[in-house]
Amino acid sequence: MLEGSLRDFSLDDLLQMISLGGKTGELHLEGTTPFGKKKGIIYFENGEVKDAETEESRGEVAIVELLNIKEGSFKFVPNDTLHVKRSINKSIPDLVLLATSKLDEWNKVKSRVASVDSVFKMVTDEIPDEIHLSQTDWKVLMQLQKGLTIREAALKLNMTVFDVAKIAYGLAALKIIKEIGQKNPETQEVKKKAPPKNFIMRLIDRIRGL
Amino acid sequence: MRHYKIVVTGPFAAGKTTFIKTITEIAPIVTEAKTTKEEESIVKDSTTVAMDFGRITVDDDYVLHIFGTPGQFRFNYMWSILSKDALGVILLVDSGDRSMFDEAKDMLNFFRVKTDAPIVVALNHFNEKEHVSEEELRKIMNVPDSIPVIGCNATNKESVKQVLLKLLELILENEV
Question: pTM for this one?
Fold first, then answer.
């Protein structure tokens, strides 16, 4: 068994080692990703990824989330994985590329959805005359309109946080919803979105110069 | 371009429209109508019925909108609308008009309940009137220590700037 911190041993190094060594077993990962805290297992067979699971997802969705863990811990347990059904047929480099592209998408989403704990409100005064929303968009909109966070809506709808965040991004771009703050998952308290500090500083300079 | 807003409120004839006219960079948008109540028409010919609007452009990214509310309680539905999502509130009180202090106190309580945004009470000194001091007003209106009471002259740009800067200081403190 190999166990440690991702600070000392990067995920890339681990994957390379398991792949080149043709290892079979379970890689347990736990840590923070841009999509929130994640915990899950990647199953390997002869150095190839066979399946992955997190608390909320399975397969490619799960591995994309797990490969984006930047800080956290790992544990590799050499184990028979015969009982695991193969759900992933991509090579490790392809999976890493997929995870990177998801991260790029997430960074774009972050321009309108700051966090998985973001809370929104419907903006009714700027809705264009005609909007076409899919059934899934509607479901997400209904949950967000109730005051649920991205994470809570994803759990309720059995979707990934990433997919809910992407839909929220689209709804915010259409000015149907607007982020109003972030909810503390432990206290459930919503911290209202503050104006950027640099705006206030720039406004102070501007007023002084008037 | 993102915009944020500040609300200027206060009782009838406190100087809200003047305050905004003094600082705005654009010709202010005012929604004034002829005063119909006898006691109001003695004070001034027209009054704000919906809102006043001024603007300060910060740079290419940000702009500040300044909304002035109507003063009379019968227009209080506009107070709620205008204070929604406001960064802060300036409550303007005419230092020489003691008859409006009770109303100002009610307005202060209204905005304290309606919004979490910081509030500054600005005591507008019209030069020729006998006026109360900031400390007297704090006692009369029972203003808590967390809300600054500062003197100003709504016709003087430097004075209006000081009120806005005080409010922005509070907003910054609130963020920490």
Answer: 0.54
B163: contact with A, CB 8 A cutoff: no
Q: Which residue has the tokens 């700037």?
A: B161
Choose from B19, B58, B165 for mutation: most chain A CBs within 10 A.
B58
Reading chain B (176 residues) residue by residue, the pLDDT tens digits are 788 999 999 998 889 999 999 999 877 666 666 666 666 665 566 666 556 888 999 988 889 999 999 877 777 778 888 888 899 999 999 998 888 899 999 999 988 887 878 999 999 986 656 788 899 999 999 999 999 999 999 999 999 999 999 999 999 887 65
Q: Does B60 contact A at CB distance below 8 Å?
A: no
In whole angstroms, give the CA distance from residue B75 to residue B46.
Answer: 15
B48, two tokens: 């704000």
8 Å CB contact of B2 and A200: no
Q: Does B81 touch chain A (CB under 8 A)?
A: no
State ipTM. Answer: 0.85
Neighbours of A3 (CB within 10 A): 11
